[in-house]
Fold:
Amino acid sequence: MNGAVSFLVIALISAAPALAQSLPEKSEPVVQYRIRVTLDPAKHQLAGKQTLIWRNPSTADAVQELQFHLYLNAFKNTKSTFMKESGGQLRGDEMAKDAWGWIDVTSITTASGADLKPTLAFIQPDDGNKDDQTVVKATLPEPVPPGGSVTLEMAFTSQLPQVFARTGYKDDFYLAGQWFPKLGVYEPAGMRGRETGGWNCHQFHATSEFYADFGSYAVDITVPSDYVLGATGERTGERKNGNGTTTYTYEQADIHDFAWTADPDFVVVTAKFSATQDVTPAEYERIAKLLGRTLDEVKLSDVDITVLLQPDHRPQAQRHVDAAKAGLKWYGLWYGRYPYKTLTVVDPAPGAFGAGGMEYPTFITAGSAWLFNRWPFDKIRLVEEVTVHEFGHQFWYGMVANNEFEEAWLDEGLNTWSTGKAMVAAYGADATIMEFLGIRMGDRDMSRASNDPMARYNRVLADSWDYTPPGAYGFYSYYKPSLVLSTLEGYIGEQAMARLMRTYHERWRFKHPRSEDFFTLVNEVTGQDWSWYFDQVIRGTDIVDYDIGSARTRPKRAARGVFDEGARRGTVSDTDAAAKDLEAERAKKQVYESIVVVRRSGGVKLPVEVAFKFEGKPAERQSWDGREPTKIFRFERPEKLEWVDVDPDREIALDVNWVNNGRRLERDSRPAANWTARWLFLLQNIFTTLGLL
Amino acid sequence: MTASIKAGLRAAVRQPKLVGLIWAWYGLLALVPALPAWTWWNGVLGSSPEAASVLKRFDLGVFLDVTAGKGVNGLGLLAGAAMAAAFVALLSSAFAFGGILEVFGSGDDRRPFMHRFFRGGGHFFWRFLRLAIIAGVLVGLATGVVSGLQSVLASAAGNSEWEPAGYLAGAASIVVFLVVAACFLLALDYARIRVARDDVRSMLKAYVEGLGFVLRRLFTVYGIAVAILIFEVVLVLGYVAYETNAPAAGTWASIAVLFIIQQAVVFGRVFLRLALVGAERHFHLTALPQPVPVAVPFAGLLVPIGPVQPAPADPEPEQIPT
Structure:
């Protein structure tokens, strides 16, 4: 925020500390999965075996019970919590009839041969819905000591649903997400604010995503040989089995999930992100200076990009590649080098949009349509927006791995804000979403559009399934947090914000932060306590809205009446005063009295700047702490007040209405005339058509 | 066909007052939802510094802020006013067509233009209203059947592995829908022309005959309509080109120019619609030079009461009591 909100921020922010710290290269692995899976295209089933090694991360707790996510059971029947909450519809997609999905653990034993299957029991830690089978617990014969580990041998069968809620099949297209029994997170005391150690393993909800521990994955995937395969990580092996199938091996460390896709129709497009050619030396220097880091610290590395494209979307290949490169470049420069060697972008098959727009480590799904191949739809940048956004989750969720069940805003919100920044950097401001038939829409427009003045019934910080109505999840986890960050950037400035986000990423890379960790870091980087801000906009429910109660400017009249001057008493008559006024007016020595009442209509109290523009003078600014409902500004100047504007730089993105922020003293009817002419024209055309049918 | 198109264009050129009257009427009707919009937007934007961006381009952010009122659904109110005015526009078409056809058909009448227009409008109003209802019902039924078939085809195309199939099926569906709807609407035009020409009283029969006329002369009827449509498309594209390339309407002068061009486009569209009616009327007269005898439905079933009266002769065309 420019200028004079001195009571709050500026002095300390201008020298925001860089807080440089090394960028962690590796995670501390907790799990190790070795999975062998075979696709049966006739049944749309996966037959899998996995060897799972789990290390007890606690230094104090011996753990005897393990908890697993069986996400596919969300699609088993209408009684699951997911189906009850979603009604079989999610993100505009409807679950196909009689195309259920499920997962059975057919065997589970320890390395020593102890059979754990009899101990398996479904649990419902969130809602007690006994019909929900998305979490299962197993009891070990012996507890795993602190720091110790256990090895399990498991076999499972996964029935994929027809594509719905990120996963499934559509004809020959497969997107296998959340397809294997996946261990929950054992959180020792102290982790994410826990007082005692315990499992964090939530049921699968309609509006929740995921949370898992870091580790390594090595996965053999067997599919018919004519299928094109893509998966998380690097392909390290390929073996023809002689029976019409091929087994591919993928491996990746320092990740917490694994997804793969297969489709005989995929067109494979490969490209390389070059750390030397796709980023200029000037850009490295600029970012290093912005972040207060050395050039070496901001240096990126090369990445192999694979785009698995639908044949009808060939003309969009470069758009996908460019968007992936934009993500690798700007997220990498701002937050830290992308540490993996590969990135796979999947374009789901037509009719499989439910699989689109999703993130997995080193593997993202975008989504497009043939219509976007050509003018005028080629400037609708949904392909770019989705690709950059899902790539961005490599940073916010992938590496900085918050609990998406409990604090979805920490990845969705931070990533929505980051996506907007990256899109502006790559594609220019104001049209990052679309330029279509003269209408331009940017990311900020989209976030602000959802900021409903009536949206004061939820708080950002909530379990993802607790938003009411369920559609509110999108606003409170994506858009409002994005506006919160934009507003914060307005207060602390671009440099401090960049350093804050960089430091947050460095500190929590390959770890599991919670909201409190982010808040603490904001205070640390800015040297100020921002709890008043986050209490209102993250923990609170109210809205931000500043407007002008009244504004007037008029010549100050000469005083009239009876006046005591010492022992003498004199009278100024109305006639005499009017003559004085006239004289002042003729001599152009009038004084104007301007009175402005600025109001805080929303419940959130934020400090603001108010700009006043007097005739023939540059705009001047004053600050207001916004604590009281109104603030009266009075001026006596030789100039008339022309206009007043609250937050003139529009940095409080959280404000639900910017149009009411200001007031012109002399009305300008041109904007209304412009709109009305177009509205009238539209109506005339409609009426003429109807009336002359 | 060409002669009819020329005749239609000539007829419209000869009746600038008629074009002006129709343009003015629908313009007046459009003011019903436009004036509240002006009041609303001028109240909000007129005093807001934020609105300056509107003068450069359509600013979606400002539009969203203006329309996201607290509890007041301004857009809903405007939409309601627009719907009400649209209903009046639809209803008034029966009157307008009566007037248009009367003016076109009374070239020798020296009475004032407005007199002839309102005479025709009043005389044919109820009959044209009944015709419009019949046409509306039939258009609804026909397009409903077509839509049903289309949805089956679209569903099949949507499942095709060739993704453009879905879009092409959608586009083809729209074309078929428009062609079918146009058939019934053109039949309405020819039925109105027939009623005005021969003072027919049975509207169902007149409409069926209009439909028969269209179906028997499909090529010419659609040819005339498409030719006029091409003029209209050129007009609209010209406007789009202006909007795309002209500087933003940021000054009063440029707003005035925009307004004048918009009104010229609407005027042009009214002119072309009247030219179409003129061309259709010319074609109808050419194809059916003699008045068509109107059969009295179920005449044979009527049992005369009292002395049998001789059947009245077919009314003379254009014999409207004044």
